[in-house]
Amino acid sequence: MTETLVVLLSVAVCVGIGISPLASIATVDPQGPTARAMRRAEQQFAAAVMLAATCSLVTLWVFGKSGEAFWPLLLLLAGAVPLVHPWLLARYLFVPLGAVRSAYVAGRLAGHPWFRDPVGGAVLTGVLASMRRRRHDPRRAQWLRHHLDGARVGGAGVVALGLLAADAGDRETARVILGSLDEIEPEICPPLARTIALDWLVADAARRGAWHELVERVSDDPFPTRTTRFIGACARRMLGESISRRSIFWSWLGVPRRLRTVPLLWSALRRPRTPAPAILDAELSQQAANGGTEPTLTALALHAEVAAIPTTQPVAVAVVERLADAWDLALGDFELRGQVRRRGEALLLDTPGELLVARLQRAVARDLAHLMAQCGRESTRLMRSTGILRRARDIHFEETIEHLTHACAELGRRRDAAWLPSEAWVRWVRMRRAYLVAVVPLDLEQRAVVYAAVEQEVRQTAAWLWNDRRERGLAHAMCLFLLAEAEHVKDAEAAAYYRHNVVVGL
After folding, report:
1. pLDDT in tens, 161-188
2. What mean pLDDT value characterizes the chain?
3. Rounded to an integer, what distance in angstroms lies between the CA atom of residue 325 and that of residue 345?
4. In sequence order, which residues have a C-beta less than 8 Å from that of residue 340 and are 6 or more positions away?
5. Looking at the whole model, is its pTM more than 0.70?
6. Burial 405-423 (b: 16+ CB within 10 A, else e)
7. Which of 273, 299, 315, 343 has the most CB atoms around it within 10 Å of its CB?
8. How far apart are CA 158 and CA 338, in angstroms?
9. 146/141 Cα distance (integer angstroms)
């Protein structure tokens, strides 16, 4: 009787899973990656239930016949579960051992958690195993890249590309690629791939000491892991926030591979919990640097102070305003022009003094433009119509147009049948990052000109990915970016066009 109930219950569960309908086609495309992932998950879960039911039935039958449990069947069940879920083998056996090819095969058969990007997930599994090796092997990386190039690029494939670059020592490229994962649609991006990317970015930011970037990245993650939660708490402690040592220690106890994070734990525990005194913008703009009294000395001293700020720390708008005001006063001083002219004559230079001052002004303006870009959204307070800040914005605009035009031309020349979608995505991500950094100090009219310079080539690249290479996920991400920029620069015609493309892509 018991055996019959177990069988009926197991069969009912399997049948219910098999006939259960998918979500409404109004919200899920039946041929899309989400629907396919749901069907594969149902089939895998049904197979696991049927396997457990079969082993339970045989065990109960043998127990009822002989009065003793048949334990080898339980061992058979334990050995059969990894066959239904090969990810268990890949995660806990092949990846720790560094068995790249075995990890790739197990990841290819795993299903879960790579339903949304099976090939990319398999390659990512192989990359994780490869990174357990002490040395980078170019042939092994080429083998993994070859398997990735023959399939559509999804979220797991993007993470695999980034980790391959990191394994080869190119951390800057890895940061750019992994940071672009936010542009990938969730339909083709497994959640585990996002977790792996975030863990690497957080660990890399901690290695560089970019605590502000680290805190911002962890705070934007709705589902932080134990590792990111611990590193985020350490980063907040390093910035002087009121994070107790006890909370950091308890979060460290839940982190895997605790021995590797002991140095970070020790540094955070030794850090005093006393934040630096806050300085208001009004007070900051009135401070003098090194007691400078003459305009030129003041400007040079302030410039040296700003240059000493680490690149991992944000730059306050008030600092840039103070520096710009100091240079406006110094460059407008006739004494400076006389000193430059006399110094040039003493050094027997053929360049006139006015030209030397113009070169100095251009160099200062270029540095100020770089600082304005570091200020982010607050740089709108630096939009002045006169002075060195206006000159900085004009120089930055000219250099931005030249750089992005060259990047777009290169994007158009490479767009052919031999160009891989993964290479196109990496180049596009670099150009997008350069664009977003470059347009920060520009006003709306200048930003519209820059957008018009890049829009045509990016549109054609998105169409090429969509029509020729069937990479709809990558093309959809490009159209989303172009739509947001078209709305920002108030280009109604382009916004309507990309809005239609985005709806079609959904």
Report:
1. 999 999 998 899 899 899 888 888 887 8
2. 79
3. 29
4. 353, 356, 357, 360
5. yes
6. eebbeebeeebeeebebbe
7. 299
8. 57
9. 9
